DNA sequence: TCAGGAATGTTATGTTATAACATTTCACTC
DNA sequence: GAGTGAAATGTTATAACATAACATTCCTGA
């Protein structure tokens, strides 16, 4: 765990992180909650949302706004934005961090006089595997 | 109204479209509902969501996924995607349709073997006006 | 050991969105 | 101009997502 940067990976945060990763597709906060409580727990939604906030701040999890769901970060490190490719058939998500996209976007945004605080880039489509198997 | 393409701009759809445009910032479905019912109406959420679905299909309104809210389309026409710049201070939204961004994104996506069905590109930041007035 | 902040617990409520089925409206045909 | 079928709307209920507010516990460092 890269949490030698003074952030505390407490038990519930670890459980939520595990649960997010145990799903191969984006998972909703209440689904996370159910899985935690499935083995006898009695956590409340707040606990999950707080853990998710922590994990997002620490670059371990991303929120997929278009799905109201969460995925583990493919390249954990500092807090960062990425581009997400979501397969509409199997639900799998690929995380990109493409320099050309960021550059083109930054140029277009600054041309309008805006500054960037955060980005949401989510593409819905079909992954190679699903394209091959269901024409 | 460009609805000579056989889609019916009925009364409730027109009211919802007007309400979306009457707000200078993205507006939530339930806020739209309140404004409709403010003058005595008694519509239900479904009516608003159905009207919004119609307006989005017809390229008159966009959904801002990161805000769970809706804005009028700046360049109405066919159904299309855009890039949205959202000012975190004043809430105003600028709609872009930048060719370089689309090109870079399409390239990065196809390089991964994905196809694109729909895009969500939403940048949160500060607009020129707010940058000037609050340093 | 004893603060003081960070983390969690607890309860309640707010907000956003859809399911399922009934009824009405409207364009089109006969 | 009555019949008909699809599109649109009405209605009721509920699912799904998220936060407010305040109490309590836990950890760290003086
Ligand atoms: Zn990441
Ligand atoms: Zn797939
Ligand atoms: Zn548009
Ligand atoms: Zn602004």
Can you describe this structure in just a few lines?
2 copies of one chain form a homodimer. The first copy, chain A, is of the alpha+beta class.
How would you characterize this protein structure?
The structure is a homodimer of 135-residue chains. Chain A has a three-stranded mixed β-sheet with strand order 4-3-5. Chain A has a two-stranded antiparallel sheet with strand order 1-2. The first copy, chain A, has five helices and five strands. The longest helix of chain A has 13 residues, at 45-57. Helices cover 40% and strands 21% of the residues of chain A. With 135 residues, chain A is an alpha+beta fold. Chain A has two domains: 2-72, Orthogonal Bundle (Arc Repressor Mutant, subunit A), CATH 1.10.10; 82-133, Ferric-uptake regulator, C-terminal dimerisarion domain (Dna Ligase, domain 1, 2-Layer Sandwich). The A-B interface holds A 65-66, 83, 85, 87-88, 94, 96, 98, 100-101, 103-105, 107-109, 112-128, 131 and B 65-66, 83, 85, 87-88, 94, 96, 98, 100-101, 103-105, 107-109, 112-128, 131. Strand 5 (115-126) of chain A pairs antiparallel with strand 5 (115-126) of chain B. One zinc ion (ZN) binds next to helix 5 of chain B. One zinc ion is lined by residues 87, 89-90, 92, 126-127, 129-130 of chain A. Chain A binds a DNA duplex (30 and 30 nucleotides) through residues 8, 10, 12-13, 28-30, 43-47, 49-50, 54, 68.
**Major sheet of chain A: size, sense and barrel closure?**
3 strands, mixed
Superfamily (CATH H level) name of the largest domain in chain A: Winged helix-like DNA-binding domain superfamily/Winged helix DNA-binding domain
Task: Compute the average pLDDT of chain A.
Answer: 94
Order of helices and strands of chain A: HHHEEEEHEH
- Largest Cβ-defined interface: A-B, 35 and 35 residues
Q: CATH class of the largest domain in chain A, anyone?
A: Mainly Alpha
Strand arrangement, major sheet of chain A: 4-3-5
Number of strands of chain A: 5
Overall domain count of chain A: 2
Oligomeric state as shown: homodimer
Strand percentage of chain A lies at 15-25%
Q: Ions, cofactors, ligands: which are bound?
A: zinc ion
Find the structural class of chain A using helix and strand composition. Answer: alpha+beta
The CATH level-2 architecture of the largest domain in chain A is identified as Orthogonal Bundle
Radius of gyration of chain A: 17 Å
What is the CA–CA distance across the termini of chain A?
A: 41 Å
Assign a percent range to the helix content of chain A.
Answer: 40-55%
Instruction: Show unreliable segments of chain A.
Output: none
Discrete helix count of chain A: 5
